[in-house]
TrEMBL record:
Source species, domain of life: Bacteria
Keywords, ordered alphabetically: Hydrolase, Protease, Signal
Family matches, as SUPFAM superfamilies: Trypsin-like serine proteases (SSF50494)
Record protein name field: Serine protease
A GO molecular-function descriptor: peptidase activity
Residues making up the signal peptide according to the UniProt record: 1-24
An individual GO BP term: proteolysis
Name of one Pfam family that matches: Trypsin_2
Amino acid sequence: MNKPLVGAFLAALLLGAGAAPVVAAEPAQQAQETASKAVPEAKAVTFAGTVALSNCSGSVVRSPDSAPTDPALVLSNGHCLESGFPGPGEVVVDQPSSRTFTLLNASGDGVGTLKASKIAYGTMTDTDLSLYETTSTYQQIEDSYGIQALELETAHPTAGTAITVASGYWKRTYSCDIDGFVHQLKEGRWTWKDSVRYTPECQTIGGTSGSPVIDDATGKVVAVNNTGNESGQECTDNNPCEVDENGEVTVREGINYAQQTYNMVPCIGAGSKIDLNREGCGLPKP
């Protein structure tokens, strides 16, 4: 896993900033004349809507059906929970939490603090994610800070998609492509299914755990960053291995991975309630 980190001293030493390519704007007159015919261009990915946890990264996310008055949800990894790593087969739902998150603006500056009311969902079984319900609504966050939540993509991503991993902990971005998908990704005691594999350019590090993986073309969240093979070991902690449908094991030293998020969108109901029995919900149940 992209190990959770503790303390700010190391962060201060290693803090860096990265940026996705900026798309040049058309001259105003030309843009006005061609607006009806031009294909919309991708916007540069920023830090707006990302958050920093005490030991990981995260983001404020919403489903396409979320209402402005719904409590805002914060997405991160299951292995970033303050209660520790959930064991294989363990699913955490509706557990009280008072965890805080530093909300970042587009430049990566902390502009406010969000507070959790509960861990709405968390697991490291089949996937590695956590969802916190906060005490603020999406509208309150936008009114107070001018920041909108990142929208979750509802469809399975595709190989070759240009992506950006935006780490609120480090205030740093990593840009690469989706290289492909892994039938089973095994790390220590845990197994994850249909994981996203990055091309080598995304050299994520400890503290980037929980970062949103953003489709550069749409600006939507397609996955949550969670791990990478650090030293070439096979299926050990911090050294995940790939297992295909035939049981063949492949080790890719230096390659990093994420867990898809489209299958959790149907689980988000009215009022940001996580309902694992909703039609289409693909998250493991307790």
